[in-house]
Design goal:
mainly alpha, two-stranded antiparallel ribbon, 2 strands, disordered N terminus
């Protein structure tokens, strides 16, 4: 592997990715995923979108996506306090609205579905604060970020190399 300097962390050498470029190798699939992601976001609060994506990326240990979505959240006006609290949102409930807490709980359940499915109480909590269309979009967004996390992890994407500042 060769190294290059990461402009986001000047002076830090980062291993260059030697795995396939998913977008170039499967462009039709990549475009379909982008379309699914865009459709999932429709009608959802942009702050909620980023919180969902950040929490799933934490759970999946996807540094690449976590870097993207924390930066996108900051650009959208998200506070540093809330960004720091996403990983421990249950202990910092007062930082998040009822809808955000319901979405974060659902994000955890769907992301970790193999650990016990999606509990009825978690689903009911989300269904109580989102109408059917919103809930479908929240679920779709959770599915898309989990897919993006798996693409990034499988292809060894390196955090900070996405070209975003």
């Amino acid at each position: 592997m060769t190294t290059h300097t990461n402009p986001a962390a000047a002076g830090t050498a980062v291993a260059e990715n030697t795995r396939l470029d998913f977008a170039k190798s499967a462009p039709k699939v990549f475009r379909a995923l982008i379309g699914f992601d865009a459709a999932a976001r429709e009608g959802l609060d942009p702050a909620l979108v980023e919180l969902i994506q950040i929490r799933a990326s934490h759970l999946n240990h996807c540094a690449y996506c976590l870097h993207i979505h924390t930066n996108d959240a900051r650009k959208a006006g998200e506070s540093e306090d809330r960004l720091h609290m996403v990983a421990v949102w249950r202990e910092a409930r007062h930082f998040f609205t009822e809808r955000e807490r319901a979405a974060l709980a659902l994000t955890e359940a769907v992301t970790l579905v193999a650990d016990g499915g999606v509990p009825d109480d978690v689903y009911a909590q989300a269904a109580a604060v989102f109408d059917d269309q919103e809930l479908a979009h929240v679920l779709a967004l959770i599915l898309t970020i989990n897919t993006w996390n798996r693409v990034a992890l499988s292809t060894a994407k390196v955090a900070g190399t996405d070209g975003r500042a």
